[in-house]
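Hi C.,

You asked whether I'd gotten around to modeling the 314-residue construct. I have! Everything is below, sequence then structure, no commentary in between.
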Amino acid sequence: MQNHSCRKLFELLVGLAAVFSGGIASAQGNKFNFSTGSPDGKLGALSRPAGSQGLETETADDFVLTQATVISGTTIHGLITGASVSSIARVEVEIYHVFPLDSDTVRTASVPTRTNSPSDVEIDAATRDSSQGTLSFSATEISTFSVLNTVINGINKAPAQTTHGEGPATGEQLEIDITFNPPLFLPAGHYFFRPEAEVSGGNFLFLSAPRPITSGTPFPAGTTDLQAWIRNANLSPDWLRIGTDIIGAGTFNMTFSLAGNTIPEAGTPGQANCHGQTVSAMAKELGGIDESASTLGYSSVGALQDGIGVFCGR
């Protein structure tokens, strides 16, 4: 009964918002797309969950949202060595704020700097994992591909962090298309994107892309495209800059893209009117309750309600 009443209230709010916004809006809303471009062949950096292949190792690169955004999916490019695309058993995605958010700033770090790194810990509500059914993925082999350098095991605490990488590698380049269920609903902000792939009998090396971005999506004016960072379980919660700290020269982006919809007039998380303002904004952009859920990639109206609740902080 309570869920039924909540749905009725949600439908009423959406309907009223659509009327006051001048009728039913385009079901397309404001599309969001971000891309770092194509792999440049310079680097492959390990990114895998803990398991039989070894320590958890995380590679992360940043993106910026200028408005509240529902991210429905992502595409990542990697190099598989020692296995085939059919060996991918699991994919996980985490989102991090930029340090010092979600971090212990009092303790002594074991790396040269934490400035502009990912936070100590991820945004828990934004984690999606195929093993938990919160994302689905499809992997496609593209071609044989080589990189000039790799970072796999040489991830050390300071002052032994500069290993210069572990040399070139050749394997199969693959594209992994990922759909989030439920989507990620994030406020405007600067974030780090961290994917991992578990490969039976091999490794997934996240492929680098040009920095600064050449063929992808430029960062918004006034923001800086930060370089890629990496850590393993021995270094956590600290991170190292792949280029500056480990390779000892240059900086890198990683190859990924994001897709979804912006909600320009969404409410502010933590404020009392967040839910109602967000419902109104969705009605204005997308037209109605069913249209909002479908366009944004939610499995149902109830899932959309839950997503707004998480976004607003309940």
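If it helps when you're writing up: Confidence is low (pLDDT under 50) at residues 1-27.

Thanks,
B.
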